[in-house]
Design a protein that fits this description.
The structure holds two protein chains of two kinds. In chain A, about 35% of the residues lie in helices and about 25% in strands. Chain A is an alpha/beta fold. Chain A folds into two domains: about 5-235, P-loop containing nucleotide triphosphate hydrolases (Rossmann fold, 3-Layer(aba) Sandwich), CATH 3.40.50; about 250-480, P-loop containing nucleotide triphosphate hydrolases (Rossmann fold), CATH 3.40.50. Chain B has a single domain, classed as ABC transporter involved in vitamin B12 uptake, BtuC. Classes of the chains: A alpha/beta, B mainly alpha. The interface of A and B includes residues 301 and 394 of A.
Chain lengths: ~500, ~350
C-alpha cells in the first residue's frame, strides 16, 4: 500500500541541541503508528514539523503522494492533518460548541454545529453535550472536545500527544475504541506515548526515537514492554527496590479537610481524611484537576485551614504557614517545577534557600549565608546526580528531569519527617524517574512518612504501601496497594467521568 | 532576517553595559534632535554633560546643585526599587514626598521658635511617618480590598497637592507673610534647618541619608532574607508563597519603606534647598525617581549613578536652555530618550540577536 505520510531525513537543530537528526518513517492509511521515546528524544519537535508549527532544517515529507510542506498549522489542517495536544487550548468560560466554533475556519451556524457535534460524538462513542461549559468538564471530557474538534475536519491523519495521561483506565478503553473505529475507516493515527502497554494493545507499528535519532522500529505486539523500554532508554532499567518495614506511629493525620478553591474553576476539597505512618508511602491517584493542587496547597501551608484539620504528630497545624510546617518536619514538593517549586531566573544556590533556609540553617539572624547555601546546592547536585555546570546556573536552564531531581533532592536532604510530593516524575525521563522513586522509597525506609500524589498509576503501584484515589475533591478510603488491579483502581478514580453504566456500554458498542 | 534567541541565563555583561550604551545612544539621537532644531549638537551635548561640572564660569554654582538634585532622587528611587523588585508598583512617591514635607514642616513649626537640637530629628521622624502613612492608604486598600496600588497611589498625588495648596495658603501660612502664601522659612532658622554640611558641595543631611540608603538597600537585597523574599516575590509569586512569604506583609512593607523614604526626602528638601512650604514646592522628584530606579536597573549602585546622571541632565538642560535657547520640551524629550533607549536595549540582556538568512519556503 502507498504510504499516507512519508518522512525522509527530517532534521531540526536548535542552538546547542539537534532535536531531530535524519528522521525517516512512513504511515499507511488506517495505520496506528506509535512514536516512542523519552522526554527530550525529539518526539514533540517531530510532530510539530508534521503539524506545521516548526519548519525542518532539512528533509522532505510527502502526504498522499504529493510534496507536503505545511507553513503553518492552518495549512496542515487543510491537507487533512489534525492534532490533539497534551495541553488543551480551551476557554473554560465558554460552552463546548463555542470552543469548537472558535477553532474553525468557517464555523457553521450554532444550531447546525451543535447538531454535527452531537452526530460525531454519537458516531465515535464520545458522548458530549455541546451546551455545557468547558469549565465544568473533567479532563477526559475536555479531551473529547479536542478530539471532536479534530474529527469535524475529517482528518486523514490524526496526531495524538500523550492522550491517556489525563484519563482513567475506563476512559482509556473508550478512547481506544474510538481510535480503532477511526483506523478501520482509514484514518491514520500517529500516537505519541511512553506508556508501553498501551502501545502494545493499540498500535500497529512503532518508531523509537532516542536523542533525536530513530534507533529502532518494531511491531509492538511482537515485542515485550521491557524490550521496548530498553530500546527507548538504551540500557536496561532497574526496578525500584525496598525492604519490608513495619509502619510506625502516625505522623500526619488529616481529618475533615474542606477547602474552597482559590479560582472559580478550581476544585473544592471535601472532607478529606487520611493518615500516614512513619516508614510508609501513601499513594494518591487521580486525574489532574480533581483537587491535587488544592490538596498540596492545604498540606504545605500555602492555604490555611482550620487548625484541627491537619495534625502533625498530634500537633494541630492547619492554620500555620509553610515555614512553620517546615520547622516541624513537614516538607512538600509541588508539581509545577518552574515558578512554584523553584524560581526560574534564580540560580540553584538561591533556589536552595527557597525551602532549605530554616532546616539547613542557611541564615543567621536574618542574613543569608550564601556560602552555606552554595554548599547545600552542591550537595544536592552531587547526591542526586543533577546534570548542570554548577550551582550558579539559573533554574530555567536545567532540563525538566534535572530540575525535578534538584527539587526532590532539596526536600529529601532536609531530612523530613513527612514529605508530600505532587507528580514527582511528570515529564521526567525514565532513568531520572527511577532515581526519584528510589529516593522516595529510601526516605520511607529510614522512617519518614511519604505521600505521593500522581497521575501515573504504574508509578503509584510501584512505590505505595497503600493507595487511595482523589476524585472531584473527595478522597477514597485507602486500600493496600499490593494486589490492586487496574480495573479496581479505575473504579476508585470515578470510572469514566460522568457516564453511567448504560451510557458507557452504549458508547462502547457504538464504537465497535 | 533578525532573530531573537532567548538566553538560558540573563547576560551579566549586557545587564551592566546597557545603561552606558543607552547614554551614548541618547547623546547621538539627542544630538540629531538638537541639530534639527538648528543648534550645534556637539556644543549642546557638551553644555548638558560637561559644563555643569567643569566649566570655570558655571561650575561653582552648578556643582553643588548636582548633589542637591540627586539626593532626593536617589533616596526616593531606592525606596521605590524595593517595591518594583517585588512587583509592587508605588507610582505615588510624589504624593508621599509632599505629605512628608508637610508633616515634617508642621512638626517644626509647632514648636516655633524653639531651637532645640532635638527639633530637627523630630522633624525627620515626622517626615518619615507622614510619607509612610500616605503610602499605607494604597497598601491597606490593596491588602484589604484588592484595589490596584498603581491607581490609588497615583491619584493620591493629586490629593496631596491639594493638601499642599491648603497648607501653604492657610494653616501653615507664615503669620509674617502679610497674606502671601507660603510657610515660615525653616532653612533660615537654627533648629529647623537642614544645612549644607560641607561648604560648596551641596551635601546636606538628605544627601547623606540617600548614601546610607544606598548601602542599606545593597545589604538588604544581597544579604538579608527580606531582600531575598522581595526578589522571589517579584520573579515567581507562587514560589514565594510556597517559600512562606506572606504577600500582604510584603505589600505593606515595600509600600511603607518607599513611602517613608519619599517622605524623608520631602522633609530634607523643605528644610533645606526649598526652605519653606509653598504652593509649588514639589517639582516632580517623585515621578523622576521612577525613571531613576529603572535607569539604575533597580540596583542600589545603579540607582546612585542614575540619580547623579539624571540630576546632571536637569542642571545641564537648564544651562542649555539658558545658553543656547533650546526649548524646555526638547530637554524633556532628551530625558525621555534616555529611558526609551534603556528599555529598548534591555532585550540584549535576555536575548541573543542573530542575523539569519530567510529560509526558502
Amino acid at each position: 500500500m502507498t504510504p499516507l505520510l512519508e518522512i525522509r531525513g527530517l532534521t531540526k537543530a536548535y542552538p546547542g541541541v539537534v532535536a531531530n537528526d535524519d528522521v525517516s518513517f512512513s504511515i499507511a492509511p488506517g495505520e496506528v503508528h506509535a512514536l516512542l521515546g523519552e522526554n527530550g528524544a525529539g518526539k514533540s519537535t517531530l510532530v510539530k514539523m508534521i503539524y506545521g508549527l516548526v519548519r525542518p532544517d532539512a528533509g522532505a515529507m510527502t502526504l498522499g503522494g504529493g510534496p507536503y510542506t505545511p507553513a503553518e498549522p492552518r495549512a496542515a489542517r487543510a491537507s487533512g492533518v489534525a492534532m490533539v495536544f497534551q495541553h488543551f487550548s480551551l476557554f473554560e468560560a465558554l460552552s463546548v460548541a463555542e470552543n469548537i466554533a472558535l477553532g474553525m475556519e468557517t464555523p457553521p451556524k450554532p444550531r447546525d454545529l451543535a447538531q454535527r457535534i452531537h452526530h460525531v460524538s454519537r458516531a465515535y462513542g464520545l458522548p458530549l453535550d455541546p451546551d455545557r461549559m468547558v469549565g465544568d468538564l473533567s479532563a477526559g471530557e475536555r479531551q473529547r472536545v479536542e478530539i471532536i474538534r479534530c474529527l469535524l475536519q475529517n482528518p486523514k491523519l490524526l496526531i495524538m500527544d500523550e492522550p491517556t495521561s489525563v484519563l482513567t483506565p475506563q476512559e482509556v478503553e473508550i478512547l481506544f475504541h474510538t481510535l480503532r473505529k477511526l483506523s478501520a475507516e482509514g484514518t491514520a493515527i500517529l500516537y505519541i506515548s511512553h506508556k508501553l502497554e498501551e502501545i502494545r494493545t493499540l498500535c500497529d507499528a512503532a518508531t523509537i526515537l532516542r536523542l533525536g535519532k530513530v534507533v529502532a522500529t518494531c511491531t509492538p505486539r511482537e515485542v515485550s514492554a521491557a524490550q521496548m523500554a530498553e530500546m527507548m532508554v538504551g540500557k536496561s532499567l532497574s526496578q525500584p527496590a525496598r525492604g519490608a518495614t513495619e509502619p510506625g506511629e502516625v505522623l500526619l493525620h488529616v481529618s475533615g479537610l474542606s477547602l474552597e478553591p482559590a479560582s472559580p474553576f478550581g476544585t473544592p476539597l471535601r472532607h478529606i481524611g487520611l493518615e500516614v505512618r512513619a516508614g510508609e508511602v501513601l499513594g494518591i491517584g487521580g486525574v489532574a484537576g480533581n483537587g491535587q493542587d488544592e490538596l498540596l496547597a492545604a498540606l504545605s501551608g500555602e492555604r490555611r485551614v482550620e487548625p484541627g484539620m491537619i495534625e502533625l504528630r498530634g500537633e494541630r497545624i492547619g492554620d500555620t504557614g509553610p515555614e512553620a510546617r517546615r520547622k516541624r518536619g513537614l516538607l512538600c514538593a509541588p508539581e509545577e517545577r518552574l515558578g512554584h517549586a523553584a524560581a526560574p531566573d534564580m540560580s540553584l544556590t538561591e533556589n536552595a534557600v527557597l525551602t532549605g533556609r530554616t532546616r539547613r540553617g542557611l541564615d543567621r539572624s536574618g542574613f543569608v549565608g550564601w556560602g552555606r547555601a552554595r554548599a547545600f546546592a552542591e550537595e544536592i547536585i552531587a547526591r542526586f546526580d543533577v546534570r548542570t555546570p554548577g550551582p550558579g546556573v539559573a533554574a530555567r536552564a536545567l532540563s525538566g528531569g534535572n530540575l525535578q531531581k534538584y527539587v526532590i533532592g532539596r526536600e529529601i536532604l532536609q531530612d523530613p519527617d513527612v514529605l508530600i510530593v505532587n507528580q514527582p516524575t511528570w515529564g521526567v525521563d525514565a532513568s531520572a524517574a527511577a532515581a526519584i522513586r528510589q529516593a522516595l522509597l529510601d526516605l520511607a525506609q529510614n522512617g519518614a512518612a511519604v505521600v505521593v500524589i500522581s497521575q501515573d498509576l504504574d508509578e503509584l503501584l510501584e512505590v505505595s504501601d497503600r493507595f487511595c484515589a482523589l476524585n472531584e475533591g473527595r478522597l477514597s478510603a485507602p486500600r493496600p496497594a499490593r494486589g490492586l488491579s487496574m480495573e479496581e483502581i479505575g473504579l476508585m478514580l470515578g470510572g469514566a467521568h460522568d457516564m453511567h453504566e448504560a451510557q458507557l456500554r452504549a458508547a462502547t458498542e457504538a464504537a465497535q | 532576517m533578525i532573530v531573537l534567541e532567548k538566553r538560558p541565563t540573563p547576560s551579566r555583561f549586557w545587564g551592566a553595559a546597557t545603561p552606558v550604551a543607552a547614554v551614548f545612544l541618547t547623546m547621538i539621537a539627542g544630538g540629531i534632535m538638537f541639530a534639527a532644531l538648528g543648534k550645534d549638537p556637539v556644543e549642546a551635548i557638551r553644555i548638558i554633560f560637561w559644563d555643569p561640572l567643569f566649566n570655570a564660569q558655571f561650575a561653582s554654582y552648578s556643582r553643588p546643585q548636582l548633589l542637591i538634585k540627586a539626593g532626593p532622587l536617589i533616596l526616593i528611587a531606592i525606596g521605590l526599587s524595593l517595591g518594583f523588585k517585588a512587583g509592587i508598583w508605588n507610582i505615588g512617591a510624589e504624593g508621599q514626598y509632599i505629605i512628608g514635607a508637610i508633616c515634617g514642616a508642621a512638626f517644626g513649626l509647632a514648636f516655633w521658635p524653639s531651637e532645640s537640637p532635638l527639633l530637627f530629628p523630630g522633624m525627620v521622624i515626622a517626615g518619615l511617618i507622614g510619607g509612610w502613612a500616605w503610602a499605607m492608604i494604597p497598601g491597606v486598600l490593596k491588602t484589604r480590598f484588592r484595589t490596584n496600588e498603581i491607581l490609588v497611589s497615583l491619584l493620591l498625588v493629586y490629593v496631596a497637592e491639594a493638601i499642599l495648596a491648603s497648607a501653604a495658603t492657610s494653616w501653615l501660612r507664615s503669620p509674617d507673610a502679610m497674606g502671601f502664601p507660603g510657610s515660615r522659612n525653616l532653612a533660615r532658622h537654627p533648629g529647623t534647618d537642614n544645612p549644607e554640611l560641607i561648604a560648596g558641595t551641596g551635601m546636606h543631611w538628605g544627601v547623606l541619608a540617600a548614601f546610607i540608603a544606598v548601602i542599606a538597600a545593597y545589604v538588604l537585597m544581597n544579604r538579608h532574607v527580606l531582600g531575598y523574599q522581595i526578589r522571589l516575590a517579584g520573579q515567581a509569586p507562587r514560589a514565594a508563597r510556597f517559600a512562606g512569604v506572606d504577600p500582604n506583609r510584603l505589600v505593606l512593607l515595600c509600600l511603607g519603606i518607599s513611602g517613608a523614604l519619599a517622605g524623608a526626602a520631602g522633609l530634607f528638601e523643605v528644610s533645606g534647598p526649598a526652605g519653606q512650604i509653598s504652593i509649588d514646592f514639589n517639582v516632580g522628584y517623585g515621578f523622576t525617581a521612577i525613571i531613576v530606579a529603572f535607569l539604575g536597573r533597580l540596583h542600589p549602585i545603579g540607582i546612585l549613578l542614575a540619580g547623579l546622571l539624571m540630576a546632571l541632565t536637569y542642571i545641564g538642560g537648564e544651562l542649555a536652555q539658558l545658553m543656547l535657547g533650546i526649548p524646555a520640551p526638547a530637554i524633556q524629550a532628551f530625558q525621555g530618550m534616555l529611558l526609551f533607549f534603556l528599555l529598548a536595549l534591555d532585550v540584549l540582556s535576555n536575548y541573543h540577536i542573530r542575523l539569519k538568512r530567510t529560509e526558502a519556503a
